[in-house]
Design goal:
Helices cover 79% and strands 0% of the residues. The chain is an all-alpha fold. It starts with 9 loop residues before the first helix and ends with a helix.
Length: 415
């Protein structure tokens, strides 16, 4: 990168680009949600129920690619730098959306979603960039800003996608492509390189796959328990996208409009919590205690949603869940502290893969639990059972977070 490409204040503009990338990624994904059923039916001629099976296949393929390629992309960024990896991925992502906009067969759509899953694995590079430019004691609040960007995208994406779908089935894909390319141009002029010769690490294929990378990073002191908590947290908190629509209908009789409103309340609360609460909470309590307190908020709010019978109370509980949003950035900051500068991409790639595992397994677990407790012959009718299960998982997470380090020290003969 030449000096002409470095802005006067590279830290601020670079952070703006990273937050824009995460937000636009979330918007781009959300843009296509409302139109996917219609598009699948259009290219296959199938019924809605049959199209839903293909929709599940497309979603799963996307998550599997994130799992497989998160460490790979992260390792590439440790070797070649954050800038080329991010910019190239944005280019491929923009072209991929154009392919989806013109796709005429389900197999082309499937191929495009596989490629999209690979390029979406750049979330690990974005978080590694944040770690590069941020002192360790400020990383938690910066990771919170990334979460806020994702929350904003979660709200705006489906909303914009629904409006564009009213114009044309393919319009949301063209919009997503335009957003990706516009951000690519912005990044080209403002994004500096943060990987230096001192922190650059040779690329190793043995460490660029999920299992190899996981073995490597778990050798770092204190990381293993943090990653275990991160995985359990992901499985528990994915209960919201997995069953919320079904839960709202079964428990409260909500229609699709009300489900959308409730999801918007959740998304806005999450985004505000990440932007306004994470930084102050981590500065006040530190990463470890902030994560601990946030886990208790998750335990209580998930249990409350599992037991509540009033829709008004359920909506009132939703904003409180924002306090639990401190857990993810706090755990990311704790793990980041334990990793050397030349392994930040690899670490964030592993965390991206663990998140993908949660995205794959949680819907299976939570929907099966919901089905068991809402079937006609169920002994106990409990639409909130998945939330109670998620609350129990968070208790396990607390036990690992609080007592795990103590047991590890004792096993090593340390006081």
């Amino acid at each position: 990168m030449t000096k002409s490409h470095i802005p006067p204040d590279p830290g601020r503009l670079a952070l703006t680009f990273i937050l824009a990338t995460v937000t636009l990624d979330a918007i781009g994904i959300g843009l296509i949600f409302p139109v996917m059923p219609d598009l699948i039916q259009e290219v296959t001629g199938l019924t809605l129920s049959e199209a839903a099976l293909w929709g599940g296949t497309l979603a799963t393929s996307f998550a599997v690619m994130q799992f497989l390629f998160g460490p790979f992309i992260g390792a590439l960024s440790d070797r070649f730098g954050r800038r080329p990896v991010l910019l190239l991925s944005l280019l491929v992502m923009g072209l991929d959306y154009l392919v989806m906009a013109t796709a005429s067969t389900i197999w082309l759509l499937l191929t495009a979603r596989i490629i999209a899953g690979i390029t979406a694995a750049t979330y690990s590079t974005a978080t590694a960039f944040i770690a590069d430019i941020t002192p360790p004691d400020q990383r938690g609040s910066r990771f919170g800003l990334i979460g806020a960007g994702f929350g904003i995208g979660f709200v705006l994406g489906p909303l914009i996608g629904g409006l564009l779908a009213g114009i044309d089935t393919r319009a949301p894909f063209y919009a997503a492509a335009a957003l990706a390319i516009a951000n690519l141009i912005f990044g080209y002029f403002v994004l500096p390189e943060t990987v230096t010769d001192a922190t650059r690490r040779p690329f190793s294929l043995a460490r660029a796959n999920p299992l190899g990378a996981l073995r490597a990073v778990t050798r770092l002191p204190g990381v293993r328990l943090t990653l275990a908590c991160f995985l359990i947290l992901g499985i528990a908190m994915n209960v919201y996208p997995s069953v919320w629509s079904y839960y709202g209908q079964a428990r409260f009789g909500w229609d699709s409009t009300m489900v959308g409103v409730s999801l918007a309340v959740y998304g806005i609360s999450f985004a505000l919590g990440q932007a306004l609460l994470v930084g102050p909470l981590i500065r006040r309590f530190g990463e470890h205690r902030a994560a601990h307190y946030g886990m208790w908020v998750d335990v209580i709010t998930l249990a409350a949603l599992g037991l509540v019978v009033s829709p008004v109370i359920a909506l009132a509980i939703t904003p409180v869940t924002a306090l639990g949003g401190v857990v993810t950035p706090a755990l990311q900051a704790l793990a980041s502290r334990s990793a050397p500068a030349n392994a930040q991409g690899e670490l964030q790639g592993v965390m991206s893969s663990l998140n993908a595992i949660a995205m794959i397994t949680s819907p299976l677990i939570m929907t099966a639990t919901f089905s068991h407790f809402t079937r006609p012959d169920a002994e106990i009718f409990a639409p909130g059972a998945p939330f109670l299960l998620a609350s129990g998982l968070m208790l396990v997470c607390i036990a690992l977070h609080v007592f795990g380090p103590l047991l590890t020290r004792r096993a090593a003969g340390l006081p």
